Amino acid sequence: MSQEDTNTQPERNSQPAAEVVDAAPEATTDPNVAELAARLSQAEAQAAEYKDQWLRATADYKNFKRRADAERAGLSFEEAIFGCEKEIEFRRLEGCPSCKGSGAEPGTDPVRCPKCGGSGEMRQRAPLFNMVTVTTCDSCAGSGYVIPIPCRECRGEGRVRQSRHITVKVPAGVDSNQQIRISGEGEAGPRGGPFGNLYVALDVQPHELFLRDGNDVILELKLNVAQAALGEEVEVPTIDGSERLRIPAGTQTGQTFRLRNKGVPFLRQSGRGDQIVVSRVVVPSKLNDQQRKLFQELAHTFDPEDQSNRDEGFIGRIKDALGL
Ligand SMILES: [Zn+2]
Ligand SMILES: [Zn+2]
Q: Domain residues for 196?
């Protein structure tokens, strides 16, 4: 089955708690003091960055497995068929609460990029052909601004990793290899950019009785030789509960019976698939005395020359079909 996306509305049930941050330093007018303060601040930011890198590496290692699982939702067979609500917890990049996503240490501002003068691009004139080549300024990545003192909380990125807890509405009829797209629950863009989309991959557990084939549900039904030969009305399990099914006399292994609208709901339209019951005639491997006697009696009643009870195999069936 191809990968498909399903839009569901996000339901927010918790927001990350607001972080306590240092108050913005007092602005100072003396340029020397300001420069010294900036240098100290940068040194501090550098130290904080190293510490943070180490903390992040440790946390990443610890969270590796959890994170890898976080954006996957495990569903039972029934949950995928009938839909459900799933709570998922994951970590994502969100706007840094300290610098409000700007990347600049609180109390400082981004300044015009000295390399490109704020245009965000570099123009070079080739002397020979008098051609002008325009490239994006590598100093400010085209933004026209640089951050002289990066925010200590986010190292100037404007984003920090936060854990998030949401409830995902899983619609009826989903299957493994599909994912649910939830708008605005992805990671924040850099420097106050909008949130992207979150993709939740679905892992559907197999069922012990039913096998899913797209929107159809397949059930193997074991019949004993008497049921197969004589026919019988039997109870078969379906995903809605048990249903009565009439097995005709002379049912063979591999014969199928269709229970309409007892399958999986279609994802984007009304209606449901079917349940397909596949019969399997089980010949008893042990007989008690009475059964052996009855089978022996039965054996005498069969005409050994009767070809109609023989499986003629694939070639025979083709010959039959072609009238040969
Ligand atoms: Zn920040
Ligand atoms: Zn620039």
A: 5-22+29-110+147-204
